[in-house]
Amino acid sequence: MNMRKSALLYLISFFIITLVSYTGCPSVFCQEGEEINAKSLYIYHCTTCHGEDGKGTKRGHELKAPNFADPKWQATKKDEEILNTITSGKNKMPKWSEKLKPEEIQALAKYVRKLAPKKR
Ligand code: HEC
Predict the structure, then answer these.
(1) 40, 49, 112, 115: which to mutate for ligand 1, most atoms within 8 A of CB?
(2) How far apart are CA 93 and CA 50, in angstroms?
(3) Would you tell me which of 15, 58, 59, 95 could form a disulfide with 89, CB atoms 3.0–4.6 Å apart?
(4) Exposed (0-12), middle (13-18) or buried (19+): which is 26, by Cβ within 10 Å?
């Protein structure tokens, strides 16, 4: 390998390493981006008890999970309460602070709001 080629290779590797350390992930390799997909998190972690529609599964009902699709339930719940419960748990609701990042919990709290019927 001649000098010019190795200098070029050195430059390229330097560039890639800088890119990786700056962004954590060069865009070429991570086209999906950093965006949190609340729906897939919800489906993965929460549907066993809460169901895809938020109304609660058989297991959820046995554990006394609320119905997220009930506008009355939505109206009486504050955002902080929802965030706190997802983060720290409540009765039979498991806590998620060790499994999910705060941003993911935020996104899930918003997603739970979306399960309510649309306001007319
Ligand atoms: C093992 C079953 C189970 C799983 C899995 C589960 N939950 Fe729950 N969840 C419950 C139960 C039971 C309650 C009712 C707690 C209570 O009020 O006694 C609840 C309550 C809630 C509430 C109401 C909060 C409040 O303050 O009343 C929210 C919001 C919620 N869950 C979101 C989630 C999210 C988001 C996930 C997934 C990350 C999840 N749950 C996973 C069982 C579960």
Answers:
(1) 49
(2) 10
(3) 95
(4) middle
